[in-house]
Amino acid sequence: MDEQTVNARLDDIQSALQQKGHRLTRSRQKIVETLLNCGGHITADGLLELVHEIDPTVGRMTVYRTLELLSELGLIRPIYQGTGAAHYILLDGGHHHHLICSGCDAVFEFEECGLQEVGQLLAERFNFAVEGHLVEFYGRCPNCQ
Question: Domain segments of the chain: what residues?
Fold first, then answer.
């Protein structure tokens, strides 16, 4: 992400935290900025390593608690792709999309989304307040076909 996009997303996250009575502390800001700059596909330990390159005083538990809080607020989501450790992804606008190769486990993100109508239909049918979605399609990449 470019710096302007990171700053805009950081402002959005700060607003979401404040609306729920939380602050964007210095440590949380470093964690969130690092998460945004790496694109949001990272394990907690991977994030901790990157944060420590910027500020070694940020503690492991602070990283884990911040990831948990951001997950509770619906800003990120842990996903499990058979590696054992959760990878945290950013939910941009409440949604995220993947193509996952079942041959080599490569993950490809895509932005196109035509699922708003499906979400609306499901919301109406089940009287459910849809807040976002994570879509994963499985198949074979060109190298594995």
Answer: 3-90, 95-139
Q: What is the pTM of this model?
A: 0.73
Q: What is the CATH T-level fold of the domain 95-139, as seen in this structure?
A: Dna Ligase; domain 1 (3.30.1490)
**Is residue 93 scored above 70 in pLDDT?**
no
For residues 78 and 86, the answer to whether their CB atoms sit within 8 Å is yes
State in words which class domain 3-90 has: mainly alpha
Say how far apart CA 19 and CA 29 lie, in whole Å: 16
The closest alpha carbon to 104, from 88, 87, 81, belongs to 81
Tell me: pLDDT of 94 over 70.
Answer: no
Query: Strands of 107-109's sheet, edge to edge?
Result: 107-109, 95-101, 133-139
Q: Which candidate, 73, 14, 80, 20, places its Cα nearest to that of 44? A: 80
Pair type for strands 95-101 and 107-109: antiparallel
